[in-house]
């Protein structure tokens, strides 16, 4: 449903296009304070956040995962997932702390549905793949990029290209862009990209009825300052990214 990624060269960039079928109200970011101060991106009907970054430059984005096996989550499980995203940036300073928390959180409070997360700070970035009840695929990098759509690339159990062509086509399109240029302006172009679309196969998705549509986009950066650029309640291709600073 979503395209997520991060780059770490001169500064951290962590980003997400949020794709949903049902039209959903997305809120402008707010500065919240837990143990630490953070930018919270929230949407109607879900607690916690769908993206966020804190004063230390620790950011989080996530995407649902299409697996061969079908899983069902009760409402309280979804509650714990979104609150877990928020706790990651409200209570922890770096990737190592975040990964330790997420492993315990998913073993103890999630247990029954898979998930796919990218967490990153100014020094490291990590992809975190989870298959119930306790399988983890974790890869940490200190430079370059991480990119995912809605498929695992470490763990087994995901759908193949014939079963989920949308995810693989979007991933390949995004890879071609990020491998050539991973600057902020290039990531903005990536999030607006219409190759193989605009429709369910493009990164900026204009799906038909009962197909996914990109309803929000966020690009968070941590260099000397912590900032975010966002578009909510619109296609990235039709909106202008607004800027907000945390510190």
Structural class: alpha+beta
Helix content: 10-25%
Low-confidence stretches: none
The H-and-E topology, N to C, reads as EEEEEEHHEEEEHHEEE
Biggest sheet strand line-up: 3-4-5-6-7-8-9
The 3D shape can be described as: globular
Terminal-residue CA separation: 31 Å
**Portion in strands:** 25-35%
What oligomeric arrangement do these chains adopt?
Answer: single chain
Query: How many individual helices?
Result: 4
Q: What do the pLDDT scores average to?
A: 96
Q: What profile does the largest beta sheet have? A: 7 strands, antiparallel
* CA radius of gyration: 16 Å
Number-wise, the strands total 13
Descriptive account of the structure:
The structure is a single chain. The protein is of the alpha+beta class and 247 residues long. It is 23% helix and 32% strand. It is built from 4 helices and 13 strands. The chain has helices at residues 75-91, 95-110, 165-180, 184-191; strands at residues 3-8, 12-20, 30-33, 37-41, 51-54, 59-63, 115-120, 125-131, 135-141, 144-148, 213-222, 226-232, 242-245. The strands form 2 sheets. It has a 7-stranded antiparallel beta sheet, with helices on one face. The radius of gyration is 16 Å and the shape is globular. It starts with a strand and ends with a strand.
């Amino acid at each position: 449903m979503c395209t997520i990624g991060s780059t770490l060269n001169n500064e951290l960039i962590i980003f997400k296009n949020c794709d949903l079928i049902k039209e959903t109200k997305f809120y402008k970011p707010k500065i919240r304070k837990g143990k630490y101060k953070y930018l919270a991106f929230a949407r109607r009907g879900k607690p916690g956040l769908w993206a966020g970054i804190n004063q230390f430059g620790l950011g989080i984005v996530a995407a649902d995962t299409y697996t061969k096996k079908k899983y069902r989550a009760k409402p309280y499980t979804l509650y714990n997932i979104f609150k877990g995203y928020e706790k990651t940036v409200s209570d922890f300073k770096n990737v190592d702390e975040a990964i330790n928390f997420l492993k315990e959180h998913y073993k103890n409070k999630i247990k029954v549905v898979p998930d796919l997360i990218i967490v990153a700070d100014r020094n490291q970035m990590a992809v975190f793949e989870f298959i119930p009840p306790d399988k983890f695929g974790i890869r940490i990098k200190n430079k370059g990029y991480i990119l995912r759509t809605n498929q695992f690339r470490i763990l087994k159990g995901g759908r193949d290209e014939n079963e989920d062509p949308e995810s693989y086509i979007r991933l390949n399109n995004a890879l071609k862009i990020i491998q050539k240029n991973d600057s902020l302006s290039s990531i903005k172009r990536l999030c607006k990209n219409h190759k193989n679309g605009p429709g369910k196969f493009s990164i900026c998705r204009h799906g038909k009825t009962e197909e996914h549509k990109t309803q929000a986009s966020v690009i968070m950066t941590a260099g000397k300052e912590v900032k975010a650029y966002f578009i909510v309640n619109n296609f990235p291709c039709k909106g202008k990214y607004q800027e907000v600073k945390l510190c």
